[in-house]
Design a protein that fits this description.
single chain, 392 residues, mainly alpha
Length: 392
């Protein structure tokens, strides 16, 4: 009887232990499943968030230009809302600096030229200097007062065939209506938004179809004037710089003598205010003219290269993309507005007959450019019409 009771207790203990172990294993399995489920949920949330983030930036038409344009969006906002108020300040700064150079030339250099130069060189300096000054003043005034042009409210672009390369030209950002063929490139300039021309800040104006020639002519004649002043004033600059260094040395000697002065020492001579102002003005003139000649000369050369190719600054970027796109297809890009280097300059300057080189280029002339900015017919000065194809 006692043996049976012992066996029964042992079996009950075994059943209890087995039940506890089963419960323990069940809890472990449940915790593992929950843990794996939690990990899977975290992974799913991570992949979903990553997909959402990529979807915000993904665009099948996205390229480097679109990304660069997006990065420069704060700059565009700054230009639209802040920088435009600085236009008057920049114009006043340009006028002040130019006036200071003219004043130094008339007050300091012209009397010296009249006393030391020969009559032939005096006539040359007077004629060229005043002609250059008149051209600078005229073209700067016309550049800041002439409207670059405005497109009409509704513009209709001609339909291009499905095989025409014109259909691949991209329309500038911000244009709601369709534009004529070349206005796809120039509409930003005509609506006072041509940021590719760096002259807008110190013109308080945009550069468009009607004032492009004035802007380039101002850059050209200002560069020529600065180079003229730098070359003509080189010897004066060297003498003035040496005089300023000598003034500094004599000032140190004068202070030393004043500190240890005896009855047997005499102080060194001092320079008058007029002499100091003269030398410093000459150094200021040469440094400013040389700096402007380098900076503005580079800008003028860049625009001269664009004019030679028959392009605007925006067309340069679009034509480059078209050239690369068509090159992959084994085709050759042609700019239909490129009439050849010589004819491009004649079209830009408005030279229709030989006498216009004098009356319209070498003298101030308010003549209008060819076309209206919307129509681009063959100008009368073009000797040979090019095939109006973008690609062959």
């Amino acid at each position: 009887m006692a043996l049976r009771c012992g066996v029964a207790r042992m079996r009950s203990r075994q059943r209890m232990f087995a039940a506890v172990m089963r419960l323990l294993l069940k809890c472990l399995r449940l915790g593992r499943r929950r843990r794996f489920k939690l990990v899977r949920q975290v992974e799913q949330l991570w992949h979903y968030g990553h997909l959402c983030l990529r979807s915000l930036f993904y665009n099948s038409f996205t390229n480097g230009d679109v990304v660069l344009d997006s990065l420069f969006e704060p700059v565009y906002w700054l230009v639209d809302h802040v920088t435009r108020w600085f236009g008057v300040v920049f114009v006043a700064l340009v006028i002040s600096l130019t006036s200071s150079i003219v004043a130094i030339v008339y007050i300091c250099l012209l009397p010296l030229i009249l006393q030391t130069y020969t009559p032939a060189w005096i006539c040359w300096h007077l004629a060229y200097g005043h002609w250059n000054l008149i051209m600078i003043i005229f073209h700067y005034y016309m550049a800041i007062t002439t409207s670059p042009g405005h497109p009409p409210q509704e513009m209709h672009r001609p339909q291009a065939s499905s095989h025409s390369p014109l259909q691949h030209l991209q329309q500038p950002r911000g244009l709601g209506a369709a534009c004529p063929l070349r206005n796809v490139v120039l509409a930003l300039a005509l609506t006072l938004a041509l940021l590719s021309f760096p002259g807008a800040a110190w013109l308080n104006n945009c550069v468009g179809h009607y004032n492009h020639r004035y802007f380039f002519s101002f850059c050209l004649f200002m560069t020529m004037g600065c180079i003229y002043c730098s070359i003509s004033g080189w010897e004066m600059f060297r003498d003035a710089y040496a005089a300023i260094e000598r003034m500094k040395l004599l000032e140190k000697e004068r202070l030393q003598v004043a500190a240890n002065q005896t009855y047997y020492q005499t102080p060194p001579p001092t320079f008058s205010f007029r002499q100091r102002a003269f030398h410093k003005s000459v150094v200021y003139l040469w440094v400013l003219c040389s700096s402007v000649a380098l900076a503005l000369g580079a800008l003028t050369l860049w625009h001269a290269a664009l004019i030679t190719r028959g392009e605007t600054s925006i067309e340069r970027h679009i034509n480059k993309k078209e050239r690369q796109r068509l090159q992959k297809k084994g085709k050759v890009f042609r700019n239909p507005y490129n009439y050849g280097s010589w004819d491009n300059w004649k079209v830009f300057l408005g030279v229709d007959v030989p006498r216009h080189w004098v009356t319209r280029v070498l003298l101030p002339s308010p003549h209008l450019p060819h076309g209206t900015g919307l129509s681009w017919d063959l100008p009368p000065c073009v000797t040979k019409q090019r095939t109006p194809l973008l690609a062959i």
